[in-house]
Design goal:
The complex is a heterodimer of chains A (314) and B (486). Chain A is mainly α and 314 residues long. Chain A is built from 15 helices and no strands. The mean pLDDT of chain A is 92. About 1% of the residues of chain B have low confidence. The chains are: A mainly alpha (314), B alpha/beta (486).
């Protein structure tokens, strides 16, 4: 594999990074936004439609973020204010948004439209090997790098990140310490949703340009699986996204020469994910990781204890 | 530093959980808040912590009136609460736990410094870098106390802090509380344990049924405190004739333990149709004994014989088959299924072998039982829509007609007088027809009125067994407080 192949892997994994990191942020706060597959699709549609109509890719991306931000708000409102089961709300929204995207996106199907333009970063692009992989990409890809680093740093190295973990871990204890649990849950759910939407728009305006029904090929569900595989840790989630992207691209490359293997390879990530989780959850592995700080946390990858549970003080 | 509560009132629906509660705690004072479960202590703690807001009343800290609409406000004003189960984040490190909720300008450096300073002052041994899940409950309390002090607590409220810690940890905790009071801190010590309040506190306010029953300086005579805690006489006096049946069961040197609670070396003999009351402070072992006899908790030692056959190896279902029946204190959570109608409960409780439910039969059976047990509800009513008294009637209605042995926790707790009287008249009818009843209660009047024999529990042991016809409420109070043995 040469640098060009790696560059393609990085580019193709970018929408998945946005969606999976966005969902990680949401779930860290204790809220499950299960609507990912539908809301990404709807964002891919609105993003493309707005960019196509206005000619502005930037507006398209913002529209995509806003769309999934609204969907995420509905999840939060249902789960927090109405105290409805978050899983149920998310599932219903998935199907609703999927159908809605097909309904509203009809006139944009298979039309050529604007897309995110390549922009190499001066100096950095000349780094041997890595320059081509990482820095001869487009701004969306650079932003995904930034998101991985900033979300990791925010969650594990800032006071506000500690609050974020606290409300997903034990909301009543966070509340007792004066942290506004539900306001923060709204905030992080909508924020995470906006990144999910960016992931959707990144499909239609970059990774797989244009719009068609079911355009994102169920990447929403894959992003949800990758959050679990990634142990709710931004770095491991990102690793999972790239690994998934790599397997898809390798399969594509092998299509002409080894067609049989190329067909099997794309389904390999799923059993691989399960086996990895089984291994990491073994008691001996878990207790081994307890000896280490940051790295241990990366390997342990435990779900926020209050994930999916509503909280109210009385 | 002084805290003043004036006429605090809080209602939940028709229940007045706190009824014009007033109390004041001066600087350096350790003030006990004593009462049985359900007396209104935890409501008051929740109000002070800002979790719930009061309907009426004023709270004043050092002369400043507080609204206390949110925990944020409680924390900011220096009201520190140590919750019954310390509210720490188990997966996080001690130092992260220390930081969460502190002002944002504080970072790890300040937290390390403060943690080691406060730990040294009170002799705590807290490693800042281990995860909180590795700490014992006592250490988690220390972590919380240190944190509250760091955040500038001026009043410290400890809610049942000794429930889950060892006696050495308790001594350590008490020493810390005394140190804090020595420095001028106002402390409220919430507990249902009379002896601890007596040992630690300067003054005590006793709550009963949401009201202040007494407020006195300590030490004070135990019999006085007990009488205020448990109150006197609401149940009619219908002392029954003694039954002399054949021997039913025998418990010899039996021990069992669960989390929380234990019984050590218990001996008990029960005859057919006998009513045995279990008396003791909350957590003295009555519940564990009932659950062990029902088959939920294994006996680790001793023997448990029914009509001379050893049955300690039998599990709950086997014992159910023998004719045992257990009715828990938490009727809604352990006894009934919320969301299912009375008809569905009846269908569940019928143990015939058919695989298909005949709903017409179930409905008419449900209607028959509703009538027989005077339940205020319909065949479609669900438990959560019934009052406590009707829930208890429903539980009795679901029981097989004549069990051999009925094990019951707090038969009339939370019930209105009419239901309580009805429940006992039904239970006594059962016992006349040969059912033996073993029940626990914190209502001393209930124990002396309806039991034949009363077993006295004190920290896991049956320390005495008295004939109910000879026992008085005052005497029982002394015995369960562990102050006197006969």
């Amino acid at each position: 594999m040469n640098a060009a192949t790696f560059a393609i892997i990085v580019a193709s994994a970018t929408p998945l990074i946005f969606a999976a990191i966005g969902e990680t942020i949401t779930e860290k706060a204790g809220v499950v936004n299960l609507s990912l597959d539908g809301s990404m699709l709807l964002s891919a549609m609105t993003g493309f439609a707005i960019a196509y109509t206005t000619g502005s890719v930037e507006l398209g991306l913002l529209a995509g973020m806003a769309t999934s931000g609204v969907v995420a708000f509905v999840v939060a409102f249902g789960g927090i204010r109405l105290r409805v089961n978050q899983i149920a709300v998310g599932l219903i929204l998935t199907y609703f948004a999927t159908k809605l995207s097909a309904l509203l996106g009809g006139e944009f199907v298979r039309k050529p439209g604007p897309s995110v333009q390549k922009m190499s970063l001066p100096v950095l692009e000349d780094i041997p090997f890595f320059g081509e992989i990482l820095f001869q990409q487009n701004p969306l890809v650079y932003f995904s790098f930034l998101l991985i680093i900033v979300s990791f740093w925010w969650i594990f190295h800032t006071r506000r990140g500690l609050d974020l973990q606290a409300i997903g871990e034990r909301p009543e204890a966070a509340f007792a310490r004066g942290i506004p649990v539900n306001s923060l849950r709204y905030f992080y759910t909508v924020l995470g949703g906006a990144f999910v939407g960016l992931g959707g728009a990144a499909f239609s305006l970059d990774a797989k340009m244009g719009w068609s029904e079911g355009h994102i090929a169920n990447y929403g569900w894959i992003a949800l699986a990758l959050v679990i595989f990634g142990g709710w840790h931004p770095l491991r989630v990102a690793f999972g996204c790239y690994l998934f992207g790599a397997i898809q691209i390798v399969a594509l490359k092998m299509q002409p020469t080894l067609p049989d293997l190329a067909q099997v390879l794309p389904i390999a990530p799923f059993p691989l994910m399960i086996l990895t989780l089984v291994f990491l959850n073994m008691r001996v592995v878990q207790s081994f990781t307890m000896r280490f700080g940051g790295i241990g946390r990366l390997i342990r990858g435990t779900a926020p204890s209050a994930l999916g549970e509503s909280f109210w003080p009385d | 530093m002084s805290l003043e509560l004036r006429a605090i009132t809080k209602r939940f629906g028709s229940v007045v959980a706190n009824d014009t509660i007033s109390l004041s705690v001066g600087p350096g004072e350790i003030h006990g808040l004593l009462g049985e479960n359900g007396a209104g202590k935890s409501t008051l703690v929740k109000i002070l912590s800002g979790f719930i807001t009061r309907d009426h009343g004023e709270i004043e800290l050092d002369g400043t009136k507080l609204h206390l609409l949110s925990p944020n406000e409680a924390v900011a004003n220096g009201i520190g609460i140590l919750h019954q189960e310390p509210l720490v984040f188990l997966p996080f490190s001690v130092v992260d736990n220390f930081l969460i909720g502190s002002p944002k300008e504080y970072g790890h450096a300040e937290a390390y410094e403060a943690l080691s300073r406060i730990s040294e002052q009170f002799g705590f041994d807290l490693n800042p870098d281990v995860s909180a899940s590795n700490l014992s409950i006592g250490e988690r309390q220390q972590l919380e106390i240190a944190r509250l002090l760091w955040l500038g607590a001026r009043v410290l409220i400890l809610d049942e802090p000794t429930t889950a810690i060892s006696s050495t940890q308790r001594e350590k905790l008490f020493a810390t509380i005394r140190d804090l009071a020595g420095d001028g801190m106002s402390v409220i010590f919430v507990s249902h344990k009379l002896e601890e309040v007596q040992e630690l506190c300067d003054r005590v306010t006793i709550l009963r049924e949401g009201k202040i029953a007494a407020s006195v300086d300590l030490p004070s005579p135990v019999e006085y405190l007990v009488s205020k805690m448990f109150g006197t006489g609401v149940l009619p006096q219908t002392r029954r004739a003694k039954v002399n049946g054949s021997s039913l069961l025998e418990l010899v040197n039996a021990s069992a333990s669960e989390q929380p609670g234990q019984i050590i070396d218990a001996n008990l003999a029960v005859t057919r149709g006998q009513v045995i009351g279990l008396a003791g402070l909350e957590g003295a072992g009555q519940r564990t004994l009932l659950r062990a006899m029902a088959g939920f908790v294994p006996f680790t030692e001793g023997s448990f014989r029914v009509q001379s056959a050893e049955i300690s190896e039998l599990d709950y279902l086997d014992r159910l088959g023998l004719g045992f029946y257990y009715l828990p204190a938490d009727r809604q959570r352990e006894g009934l299924v919320n969301g299912l109608s009375i008809t569905e409960h009846v269908a569940l409780s019928v143990t015939d072998q058919s695989k298909v439910i005949d709903w017409n039969v179930a409905r008419s059976e449900a209607a028959r039982r509703i009538d027989k047990f005077s339940i205020k509800g319909t065949v479609e009513s669900t438990p959560e829509s019934l009052s406590g008294g009707n829930q208890q009637r429903l539980l009795l209605a679901l029981m097989p007609e004549a069990p051999l042995l009925l094990l019951m926790e707090h038969p009339t707790r939370g019930l209105d007088i009419e239901s309580a009287t009805w429940v006992w008249s039904y239970l006594l009818t059962l016992s006349e027809s040969g059912t033996s009843i073993i029940f626990s209660s914190s209502d001393l009047e209930e124990l002396t009125t309806y039991s034949d024999q009363i077993a006295i529990f004190f920290s896991g042991r049956i320390i005495d067994q008295v004939d109910a016809s000879e026992a008085t409420v005052e005497e029982l109070g002394l015995l369960i407080g562990g102050v006197r043995q006969r």
